Amino acid sequence: MFRQTALLALALLPFSLAQVSEDFENGWDQTAWPIYAPDCNSGGVVTLDNTTAHSGTNSMKVAGAGGYCGHIFFGTTSIPSGDVYVRAYVKATTALTASHVSFITMPDSAQGTNKHLRIGGQSEILMYNRESDDATLPDLSPDGIATSTALPTSVFECFEYYLGTDGTIETWLNNSTIAGLDSGPGITNANDAGWTSSTIIPNITAVYFGWESYGGDVNTFWYDDIVVSSSRIGC
Ligand SMILES: *[C@@H]1O[C@H](CO)[C@@H](O)[C@H](O)[C@H]1NC(C)=O
Ligand SMILES: *[C@@H]1O[C@H](CO)[C@@H](O)[C@H](O)[C@H]1NC(C)=O
Ligand SMILES: *[C@@H]1O[C@H](CO)[C@@H](O)[C@H](O)[C@H]1NC(C)=O
Ligand SMILES: *[C@@H]1O[C@H](CO)[C@@H](O)[C@H](O)[C@H]1NC(C)=O
After folding, report:
1. Phi, then psi, of 153 in degrees rounded to 5
2. Which part of the chain is the Cip1-like core domain (predicted)?
């Protein structure tokens, strides 16, 4: 019933607007939302969970194991061409630590084959990481770290970001801009030197939600009410 309503609502939107909108109330469609764990997968588990949700009763649970091969993600390849906005409600069990982790990973053809634009944590704050040169946004200096924020735990947080065709990146947590995670033409960020040292403009082919750690951190995340669109979604 809800899916039909959602499809009708989508059909009424301008063609380019909403690419994907999923609340998982009708279950986990593994064709539309496949598992993603390139190279290896030992330990990470994705399940549909009806014990916690942002809306309704269902969400997607990712029990991520430690180490790179403990990684696992699920996601969508329905990405608009041009500007991309992604909004998801995200609940973490454990706070971000000093170690590098990712909870969103996006294959990025601009970086090359099997290279990813990643969103995750390091130095206890949210950040982007570009796999090909390991650059971070923000720079992980004390000043850079201070321009980002921790990811609260045990609560569904509204997390949204924008990837523009001109290289702009903007990021919001609970509808508030995270200054350190914004970069691009027209944006002044004193802590994006590492990021802007490359001319790569992300050109993602998919968005995957899950867990990947490089130092051994373990975490369980839930994801709900995911929207991928070519315009701002909001909370
Ligand atoms: C919730 O999920 C459990 C385990 O998958 C299942 O056995 C149960 O029937 C589900 N409950 C509802 C209300 O769908
Ligand atoms: C979101 O922000 C509002 C207003 O600043 C605050 O009251 C609320 O607790 C925040 N919610 C979460 C989930 O962080
Ligand atoms: C989110 O932020 C925008 C811009 O600051 C504001 O216009 C909008 O009302 C906010 N929405 C919510 C739900 O707080
Ligand atoms: C982005 O990648 C797609 C293929 O996935 C390609 O068609 C398009 O030309 C690329 N865009 C840019 C700006 O390179």
Report:
1. -110, 160
2. 23-231
Q: Which of 175, 182, 232 to mutate to test the pocket of ligand 3 (most atoms within 8 A of CB)?
A: 175
Residue 92, token pair as written in the block: 């973490």
**Six-digit token string for 71:** 């990684």
User: What is the average per-residue pLDDT within 49-70?
Assistant: 97
Cα distance from N-terminal residue to C-terminal residue, the chain: 23
Q: Does domain 2-229 have CATH number 1.10.40.50?
A: no
Angle, alpha carbons 221-222-223 (nearest 5°): 125
Its pTM surpasses 0.85: yes
- The pairing of strands 116-122 and 125-130 is antiparallel
Q: Are 177 and 188 in contact (CB under 8 A)?
A: no
The ligand with the least distance to the CA atom of 58 is 1
**CA-proximal residue: ligand 4, atom 7 (nearest):** 81
Q: What is the pLDDT of residues 152-162, one digit of tens each?
A: 999 999 999 99
Beta bridge partners of 141: none
| Count of helix runs (H) and strand runs (E) in the chain | 3, 15
Q: Is 138 in contact with 189 (CB distance < 8 Å)?
A: yes
For the stretch 75-100, pLDDT in tens is 999 999 999 999 999 999 999 999 99
Query: Which among 22, 119, 104 is positioned nearest to 62, based on CA atoms?
Result: 104
Residue carrying structure tokens 């999923």:
22
Amino acid found at 224: D
Q: How far apart are CA 7 and CA 12, in angstroms?
A: 9
CA 38 / ligand 1 centre spacing (Å): 30
Please report which confidence band the pLDDT of residue 19 belongs to, taking 50, 70 and 90 as the band edges. Answer: confident
